[in-house]
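[job 4471] stage=fold_predict status=RUNNING
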Amino acid sequence: MKKVFARILERLNINGRDLPVFLLSLLLAFSIWFLYNLSLDYSDYLQVPVTAGCNMEGHSSVSSGSSDVIARCVTSGYNIIRLKSMRGKSPVTVNFKQMRSAGGEMFYVTANDLQEYTHLIFGENVSLEYYITDTLFFRFPFETHRKVPVRPVYEIDFVPQYMIVGDMEVEPDSVTIYGEPYRLEKIDYLYTNPVKMSGVRSEIHGEAKIEQIRGIRTSVGSVRYSADVVRYVEIRKTLPVTGMNVPADKYMMVYPPYADVRFRCAFPYKGDPEDNVSVHIDYDDFLKSRTGKCVAVTDALPEGVISCSVEPQIFECVVNDR
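[job 4471] inference complete, writing structure tokens
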């Protein structure tokens, strides 16, 4: 073999120093020939996996599986290589205007129906000769719908002495979900994708996407969120803890008898929350408890008081006859 190669080089009058140039030229010539041939049109059988989409009441908007479309087409060598490499990869989604029912969850389209979708299946630079596939069947699962609330998920870091007022609100606060009945039964609400902010000292607003659940689609893909943020001052008080709704023939003793209450009030706050807020244990809560340990509650907070916290959280209660 070496002798044959040496004779060829000798006939071509190529010495050892010219060999790299010769090989590079040969490679370049082959590349040009190969690319030129790929640009030419050829007739070949092409196969493309297709997922169907169609709006049909009571059914999913997308088929649960795919079907292979096979056709004889004329196109460039580039397209033939590209289309043949699609086998085993993600299918092409084609949205059909209408489909024929085969009963139950099964629907189909014929080769005649596929004519207007050829450019979507195979691409713009493909000329169809004829379809080998006569009929394509797709399964569109039955689906129902229901309305569920949307819960915002957020992680917000405020500037010192700033806080959110109430809860973050979303609009719309509920969305319609669509899917197979057994999937919807397990969903009572949806979350938004996390909203993360830092250094917040003013009103919060924006848009958050709704979490995606496999096999479920929603009437909208995102919601608008908003929340008021205010500056606050902190006021601490020590208040007595008393019994509430205790029958006239009973009296309640609470230990410890006093609680440390921390009020957060909108700045500037003129007044004393102690004048309008009391801390107490409800007698009904005592009856429901097994150990006599109860959580103290406060009256409705007056205007300007954003929140309050009570320490300790649990109190020992004893009820005796008068």
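[job 4471] summary: The chain has a mean pLDDT of 83.
[job 4471] exit 0
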